[in-house]
Design goal:
By secondary structure, this protein is mostly beta strands. It has helices at 4-13, 131-138, 164-172; strands spanning 18-20, 36-40, 47-51, 58-65, 70-76, 80-88, 93-101, 105-113, 116-121, 152-154, 157-161, 178-182, 193-200, 204-209, 218-223, 228-237, 240-253. The chain folds into two domains: 4-138, no CATH class; 152-253, no CATH class. Strand 16 (228-237) and strand 17 form a beta hairpin. The longest helix is centred in the first third of the chain and has 10 residues, at 4-13.
């Protein structure tokens, strides 16, 4: 059984405010058993609020970095399904979503980044036990070496100067450049907005899905975002300093896990 006091000591070592939630954030039959970490704002200041869920859940702080004010949190749950309400920026209203949590081991990087609190689910493919390793695990593998190319970061997004070939592609599609546009297609979290933005192509993910009318699963295709993104000018976000891109930059996201059961705060 996880002891909240042990978790609290890890947060305190990193200088992070934390409190134990009195109730589950979700609802439905599996909500009470599911682990949650959310950001509360008592008296207007951010504080991490934790619901441990089932007594069989295992939650542990693996590393605490006081200088960065960040920790690595490991969570092993029993799995289950719950519902929660989230704001859908496309529909511009609160919507009810069903979330399935697998019993897989998950790790999170939690703390403060520039101005506000955040939580990122780390990719399961990379072994991580320290905050420094978590930063490396979140680095997009397509990013060039910082020793060779200047890379600019804002939150989960990286900006790399466009190559000559990429600039030629942008010139061909200049009629599709959008102004004051949100970067990416994920509508969760606060938007990162670029003065000029161009998305090219479309990535498709194939998912096996069980259906009631057949013993065999069907293949369902999901759009998971554009294959290439570019930005120019100022990029703004409520919790980060404004960055200024003097020319066109390729936009790459970090390697954070954004699967159906991931829980992400930005």
């Amino acid at each position: 059984m996880t002891n909240f006091e042990d978790i609290e000591r890890g947060f305190v070592r990193a200088g992070l405010p934390v409190m134990q939630s009195k109730r589950s954030i979700g609802f439905g039959p599996g909500a009470a058993r599911t682990f949650f970490c959310e950001i509360a704002r008592p008296k207007g200041k951010p504080c991490f609020s934790i619901w441990l869920g089932s007594e069989n859940n295992s939650v542990r702080v693996l590393d605490a970095d006081k200088d960065l004010r960040q920790i690595v949190l490991m969570v092993q749950e029993q799995g289950g399904t719950f519902k929660r309400k989230e704001y859908d920026s496309t529909q511009k209203k609160m919507v009810e979503r069903e979330v399935k949590v697998s019993p897989a081991l998950r790790k999170f990087l939690i703390g403060f980044d520039e101005r506000d609190a955040f939580m990122a689910q780390l990719p399961s493919s990379t072994p991580v036990t320290t905050v420094r390793q978590a930063h490396e695990a979140l680095r997009n593998p397509a990013l060039p070496s910082p020793r060779k190319t200047k890379v600019i970061r804002q939150g989960e997004w990286f900006f790399v100067p466009a190559t000559k070939e990429e600039q030629e592609l942008i010139e061909k599609d200049k009629l599709f450049i959008k102004k004051k546009c949100r970067i990416g297609e994920d509508r969760r979290g606060k938007p990162h907005t670029a003065d000029e933005y161009l998305a090219k192509g479309q990535q498709i993910r194939r998912v096996l899905e069980k259906v009631s009318w057949s013993p065999r699963p069907r293949i369902r295709e999901e759009r998971v975002g554009p294959s290439m993104m570019f930005a120019r000018g100022a990029v703004r976000h409520a919790d980060h300093a404004v960055i200024h891109l003097g020319g066109w930059h390729r936009v790459l996201r970090n390697a954070e896990d954004r699967g159906p059961s991931s829980r992400w705060i930005d």
